[in-house]
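yo

u said u wanted the structure for the complex thing, so here. seqs first:
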Amino acid sequence: MANNIVIDPVTRIEGHLRIEAQVDGGKVTTAFSSGTMFRGMELILQGRDPREAWIWAQRICGVCTTVHAHASVYAVEDALGVEIPPNARLIRNLIAGAQHIQDHVIHFYHLHALDWVDVTGALAADPVKTAALAQSISTWGKSSATYFAGVQARVKKLVDSGQLSLFASGYWGHPAYKLPPEADLMAVAHYLEALEWQRDVIRIHAVLGGKNPHPQTYLVGGMASPVDGNSPNVINWERIGFMAERIKTMREFVTQVYVPDVKAVASFYPEWWELGAGHKNYLSYGGLQGGNRTDQASFGFNRGIIVGGDLSKVVDLDQKKITEAIAHSYYEYAGGDQAALHPWDGETKPKYSGPTPPFDALATDGKYSWLKSPRYDGMPMEVGPLARMLVAYGSGNQAVKGLVDGALTELKLPATALFSTLGRVAARALETVYMLDLMDGWLDELAKNMESGDLRIHDGAKWDPSTWPDTAEGWGFHEAPRGALGHWIKIKDKKIENYQAVVPSTWNAGPRDEKGVTGPYEASLEGTPVAEPERPLELLRTIHSFDPCLACAVHVVDATGKERVRVEVR
Amino acid sequence: MGDSGGLMLSPMSGPGTTRPPEPEDQSENWLMSALADRGISRRRFLGFASAMTALLALPQAMTPQVVKALESKKKPIVVWLEFQDCAGNTESFLRASHPDVADIVLDALSLEYHETIMAGAGAAAEAVLERVRTGTDPYVVIVEGSIPTAENGVYCTIGGKTAISILQEMAANAALVIAVGACAWDGGFPRLGPTGAVGVGEIVGNKPLINLGGCPHNAANTVATLVHYLTFGSAPALDSYNRPLFAYGHLIHDQCERRANFDAGRFVEAWGDEGLRNGWCLYKMGCKGPQATYNCPIVRWNDGTNWPIGAGHGCIACASPNFWARMTPFYDRLPGVKMFGVDVDAQTIGLGAVGFVAAATAVHAGGVIARRARSKPKKATVAPDGTVVASTSEPAAPSDGAGQN
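structre next:
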């Protein structure tokens, strides 16, 4: 018997996402992904000073805070032909890297873990056995029976409150939960530890950017945060040491807690190495430059495309092959719903045509999402940690190859197992380790520059708009925690003429295109087993494995409805 | 928990659609059957799970009086609603670090609904919201993000319902509504777009309301406000925008660590120059501190680590009313900012002006703004039972020419 499942709101994500799925014979036969929120910004970026675009664009997202600022300044610099000083590049990379590592750990523990961890099981755990388990997988210090008993004791004190709080509505006791109670308790303890850890390590953003969320020291042409070892007010030797300590703290938690926990949890769910693949097309813009802006050989993340799971061939990426479709999105194109346009030529005119709220079901035959459908050369593409690791692996990135092959050997899995729900979880953990090494290198380089007397943080040659050409266009790209992020800008008469962003969760969560081809979420859900349609835990596992960040698709029109600017937001 | 009337949301299911059955406390029925299978008492579990709600930070410095009050009561219920948001205020809240996160929070609050971090999804999540709304226990609603009103609210729906209808429903029975961040306060940047985005005050009208602006809000202030409310049953003293005076009552310029450089005429003249490395004043680089109020320089960010001016970039006045419209272009200098003496403004003062300072005594224009901002304070205007109500103010039109070309 067929059932329709609706999950709205999908929680433990950023933003507003609705999933509808049809289930027949205990498996998903078809699924629909819908973004249910839209922020328009009349006169937001068009006509504004391109130098402040990053301040606005950063507000696209507060969870992946900073990534839009990063892409935005690079887009303007690309348009104006600005090359930033090495110190500015290093500071940007350190901000991005800190964000990346912190975000991945938060995702695993606070957004994804409860899909695998049944907290009711944790209550039945024996602290002695939990300690034995923890000590068998890691050297992490907080692993004694006393410690785990303490977690339970501390909790008992709260029992009398009788209030369940955030955990009132979980799918506890669901038959798809497979962890032994001791693993549940260990994961719960680490959930709490990760809360404190994330607050501390992100202080790197405060050092370099003034605050988190929304660091505030970007500049077109460099950064505003000065470096001078001997000045009391800036990034000096004390601050370098402060950051080194935070990176060390990151490494300890990632290697001794996060990675072992991922392996431990995954070992109880082997079937999820075979579920949730989707189209097996992967895209990475690459980024985190080690040299000049366009020097691909210096990128920390490789650039390329993998089609149909063929790891033997990484296809060169040409951003001009990116288009967006709106056949199932609440927008209109002058050329009709069948058109697919490059972002620079994009049109955006919002027109809601869904059911009148309150509604029970979307009209999935027609338009059903505020997200567009990005395509590369007409193909849907998955972006994110898995895409990055696969592209790097296929490109012969030796550090990534070592990490991936090591994990596959340990888990006794073929590389093709990575095309899966757990593959995304594993890739996220592996690239966190990879990023730690990059962080160490960037901080060392920054310190060496300071010691050598290179204090440059900004190239002001193009700060004055009178130095700009009459027209210019640029593309800024970045590999955000959730995947490939691109900002496109056109500048005319010193002002923004057009500004567009295509963000990771638009790639992943977008609806069907004009040819009826599903988006990555939609494809990955097909075939998912569903034990209890009224408690669709299994669907959440695959959706959360993408780390959705959906807030919005924002398109800017002027008061007359003419397109002004478009910012599409995850 | 479980003592509410328990009316459920109308099912969203269409024909042939299976949604979770929605009896009262259905989620806990699943939970309790799971617990029963494992021989665990309900009470024991409730407390255990609450331990993981250590996401709301409250100061350790709470007085014994507070602790006693909290121990003697049921934990206040909080629901956190997100509409046209970026979750930046949620993230900021998770960074609250000045108080130790866990110890008091676990005993102090029960965060029943928060889409970004709650365990349940879909109908199970909606059922929680409805249980809180129809229950007998007082609850606080925290709102993040603006509310779109155009086209009957189709620009933001959750569970098939519009943001407007959800906010109206939840606010109707709420003891207190708190708007966090610029968007929830006055519509933020979405207000400039086509969705008819407005702030919370424009929807909930005559409800007890506290506005905690900022892009994002500084969690230290939100925590302090909650603590005050929980301790004394009322809001701290508020200004005419319903903002706590302790956080929004003073100019950044007056609290700024670089103020001495302003007074001495030492300005950053170009990005990356020696003045920037020496921590000089950023006024000439577009800093909006002279017309922005917030306690950013005092509480700073991320456990007091730093703040934007401290890191080398000007203030963008993100806690000021309608700042996206009033305080841009961000790199243009504020007009009319006076140095000492009303006839000399800061733009005309250069590196050689140091000697001028000693002779000058007049208050500069910023002080005028500060007095204006504090001109209509309201003390303890909000009580849990709603007996004293603070009026809601629209963001004021720019009165000082701030930031416009």
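Chain A touches chain B through 136 residues (CB under 8 Å). The CA atoms of residues 26 and 530 of chain A lie 5 Å apart.
cya
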